Amino acid sequence: MRLPLCLLLLVAIASGRAAETPLPEVIRASLTAAARQYEWMLAHLPADPAKPMPRTFEHGKLVTVATRDWTSGFFPGSLWYLFEATGDTKWRAAAEKFTAQLEPEQHNTRTHDVGFILYCSYGNGLRLTGNADYKPVLLNGAKSLTTRFNPTIGSLKSWDWSKVWEFPVIVDNMMNLEMLLWAGREQPGSPFREVAIRHADTTLAHHFRDDGSSFHVVDYSAADGRVKSRVTHQGIADASAWARGQAWGLYGFTVMYRETRDERYLAQARKIAAFIMNHPRLPADKVPYWDFDDPKIPNAPRDSSAAAIICSALLELRTYVPADEAVRYAAFAEAQLRSLASPAYLAETGTNGGFILKHATGNHPKNSEVDTPLNYGDYYFLEALLRARK
Fold it and tell me: Is residue 323 part of a domain?
């Protein structure tokens, strides 16, 4: 039997948490704070047609990016979530404005992240408004994404820029499959669903270690599909567990189970969840260090974006597992939400460049976006809040 979240929360309260602020109040206050922040950001966002999307706030400056940037869909996606949270049409108008600027990316075949770019923006817009004009953009985006698929390998290529790797595939790419699965439902008989499943199966076969952790990058031979190397680009070492990579895997395989009901995907999601939740170097507040294997722990940066992704994924994963396991996932996700909603991570209005969450880590090895806000951290935090509210 699977218990609804309200009953799971009662279990948590009965276990000694009754003195805390009720979770619905934490959620309400967090959404209110998020709305205030984004109102402030919209009022202070410079008008730059070349770089319209806010990505981070680093070295005292707001960093905005072009629509081709892999993060460009998260800000309009967050605006859609604020519309969903409040019902206020001002958020719909803002979301529509920023979403429309991403229209050219439907034809972008040079990135595997067109799923991030379009499904977080146009996908949420379609879900919340039913605007039929959004469908062809998403379908064209799916077509663009499938041009990166190599049938010999069974994967979508992640990057074109490397002079070292022949056909690199990153675990992050699991997050772009949701748009393909949607497109497969919209166009039965199209290759979209098969491409998503084959990519997930290849990732399942080659990206994960016995303990449930994942490598960041797997490089393949385009000629015969063999694995050439398993390395990292954003973790501290090839054999380490880069925190956001674990989060992407957890979320991605949870989505794959939702869309296919393939028990292999559910088993992998549960295995990743166990790795994260039981890790001896996970901090007490459940917001992971940027890499679980950084030797400087506990004096290492956190990654609030990884926590937000994990939290949102667990709130969905709990609906697919037995009641005792669901209780554990719900309690863990609640602890993460409470941490992220606390002053330690939730920014005050008018600070943090207008972003919601503090203390994320983008690319630590390059000393880029370390201890900064990140637009995707905000996006998945808002998603987690809405999932918890439901």
Answer: yes
The count of domains in the chain is: 1
d(CA 24, CA 378): 19
- Please count the CA atoms within 13 angstroms of the CA of 291 that sit on its side-chain side: 23
| 246 located within any domain | no
- C-alpha to C-alpha distance for 216 and 173, rounded to whole angstroms: 10
Q: Is 262 a catalytic residue?
A: no
Determine which one of 48, 88, 113, 324 is catalytic.
113
Confirm whether 285 is a catalytic residue. Answer: no
* Residue 232 assigned to a binding site: yes
Q: How many CB atoms lie within 10 A of CB 43?
A: 9
Distance, in Å, from the CA atom of 38 to the CA atom of 41, rounded to the nearest integer, reads 5
Q: Could you tell me if residue 309 is inside a domain?
A: yes
Question: What contacts 190, CB < 8 A, 6 or more positions away?
Answer: 183, 184
- Over range 215-236, report the average pLDDT: 97
CATH number for position 379: 1.50.10.10
172 is in an annotated binding site: yes
pLDDT band at 14 (very low <50, low <70, confident <90, very high): very low
Which residue has tokens 């972008």? 108
Structure tokens at 205: 């076969």
Give the domain extent around 21: 1-44+253-390
Residues 340 and 381: beta-carbon distance below 8 Å: yes
Tell me the C-alpha distance between 297 and 326, whole Å: 30
State the pLDDT confidence band at 16, using cuts at 50, 70 and 90.
very low
- Predicted confidence at residue 20, as pLDDT, reads 87
Residue 244 labeled ligand binder: yes
Q: What is the DSSP letter of 70?
A: T
Other Cβ atoms less than 10 A from the Cβ of 185: the count is 11
80 is in an annotated binding site: no
Closest of 309, 163, 176 to residue 244, by C-alpha: 309
Q: What are the angstrom distances between the C-alpha of 301 and each of 216, 285, 298, 359, 365? A: 19, 14, 8, 8, 12
Q: Rounded to an integer, what distance in angstroms lies between the CA atom of residue 272 and that of residue 138?
A: 30
- Does residue 235 form part of some domain? no
Query: Of residues 88, 133, 160, 172, which has the active-site annotation?
Result: 172
Type and span of the H or E element at 329 = helix 323-340
Return the axis-axis angle of helices 192-206 and 243-260, rounded to nearest 10°.
Answer: 130
> Is position 55 annotated in a ligand binding site?
no
